[in-house]
Amino acid sequence: MTDESVRELLAANLRHARTRRNLSLSELSRLSKIGKATLSQLEAGAGNPTIETVFSLSRALEVPISDLLDQRRGNGLTVVRAAEVEALSGEGVDLHPLRSIVTGDTVFEVYDQVVRSRQDSLGHLGTEHTIVQAGRLGVRVDGREVELGPGDYVGFDALLPHGYTALDGPVRSVLLLQYRSDQRLHSTPGCSAGS
Predict the structure, then answer these.
(1) What is the CATH number for 17?
(2) Is residue 188 included in any domain, yes or no?
(3) Which residue range forms the structural domain that includes residue 117?
(4) Is residue 146 within 8 Å of residue 154, measured between CB atoms?
(5) Which residue from 155, 138, 134 is spatially nearest to 147, judged by alpha carbons?
(6) Contact, 139 vs 160, CB < 8 A?
(7) Which residues form the HTH cro/C1-type domain (predicted)?
(8) How does pLDDT run across 106-143, given as a tens digit for each residue?
């Protein structure tokens, strides 16, 4: 990201989301299963947020992931250069946030995703859509498993426990997260956030 780092964006948006829900750091710690000291560091713009941390906060605060990482941009032509996007990394996945799109009552977040090994999620808000570009991807959703190759698609309720596994080395994919616009932290009807 060019003007603000992931840490700075997360700090401001986390404080906003927590106060909007009238939660103390202790209450958010209990809901997210993230230590109070870690949350305090994140709100101060310190620490090193991982995918797992952001997903846990999204689930606990009941907001889309992009609301915790959103950087407002003007309207018009949008070009996102891979080299300028700070990756959000987890145990086995690197996510590069590319864009949030609001259309009517639906929000889509677009990510460039690289699955390096195995990544598990307890679940989070929204519907998850993944399109494999290169490699073989194992997908687990609530106990069911499927294998995807280049060009294959999977979609599921992201509240269900799920995970991805790179079966033969790193997998490139496009991840789309879909939400209702009334679930957004920064509700602005008719605008295109991140555009």
Answers:
(1) 1.10.260.40
(2) no
(3) 82-183
(4) yes
(5) 138
(6) no
(7) 14-68
(8) 989 999 999 999 999 999 989 999 999 999 999 999 99
The letter for the amino acid at 95 is: L
Calpha distance 155→184 (Å, rounded): 21
The conformation of residue 14, written as its DSSP 8-state character, comes to: H
Angstrom distance (rounded) from CA 92 to CA 114:
8
Neighbours of 3 (CB within 10 A): 8
* 191 domain-assigned: no
- For residues 33 and 97, state if they share a domain: no
Residue 70's closest CA among 32, 89, 97, 48? 97
Compute the distance between CA of residue 142 and CA of residue 123 in angstroms, rounded to an integer: 10
Q: pLDDT by residue (tens digit) across 77-93?
A: 677 788 888 888 999 99
Among the three residues 69, 90, 113, which one is the final residue of a domain in this structure?
Answer: 69
CATH number for 134: 2.60.120.10
pTM to 2 decimals? 0.67
Annotate 84-97 with b (16+ C-beta within 10 A) or e (fewer): ebebbbbebbbbbb
Provide the number of structural domains found in the chain: 2
